[in-house]
Amino acid sequence: KDAGLILAIGVFSLIAGFVFFESIYWFIPNKKMSFKVTWCGALVAACTLEIFLILFPLYVRRFMGNYAGQIGFAVILLLFFFYFATILILGAQINAFFFEHYKPLVDGLGTYISQMHQEHGVGDPSRPLSEDETDIRTGQPPHRNALLEKLWPSKTASSAEHGEL
Q: Within its chain, how far is the Cα of 41 from the centroid?
């Protein structure tokens, strides 16, 4: 009799979590979403939330028993909301990955940024400076290395020598 009640409460809680996450994933985005796009993330988030709601009290008893009073309650509440937000974002990421076809970066963010720097010549001393590039500290164009200046004089240095300025 108690097992049936526990099972019924679990199923109801799972359905309520699914409806909750589905409504968030369906109504909150600034573009029109459909059920076929959002159901998988909502289901995963609801199942993960159920597991979290079962395991979180055990975690609090086991590892946070030393916290007492209002400060302990605040720490536990912040931890609960952190994990809840993580579950919410997990479901949204699942929706974006599988149903909106947003693929993760192949080699990771660091490699992508490095490739973008190479493509645009950032950090290349031979790349000509644009007008808007200035040294943040001085407000002047960055100083070139003296050896580089001797080997490859800049236009302003060579034109100043010839009196063209």
A: 17
Token pair belonging to 28: 């909150």
Q: Whole-prediction pTM value?
A: 0.57
Per-residue pLDDT tens for 101-132?
Answer: 665 556 666 676 677 667 666 666 565 555 44
What secondary structure letter does DSSP report for 122? T
Which residue pairs, CB below 8 angstroms and at least 24 apart, start in 148-155? 152/126
**How far is Cα 118 from Cα 69, in angstroms, rounded to an integer?**
55
The two most distant CA atoms of the chain are separated, in Å, by 100
User: Contacts from 80-83 at CB under 8 Å and sequence distance 24+?
Assistant: 80/56, 83/52, 83/56
Spatial contact of 56 and 83, defined as CB atoms under 8 Å apart: yes
For residues 76 and 31, what is the distance between their CA atoms, to the nearest angstrom? 35
Among residues 149, 36, 137, which one has the least CA distance to residue 95?
36
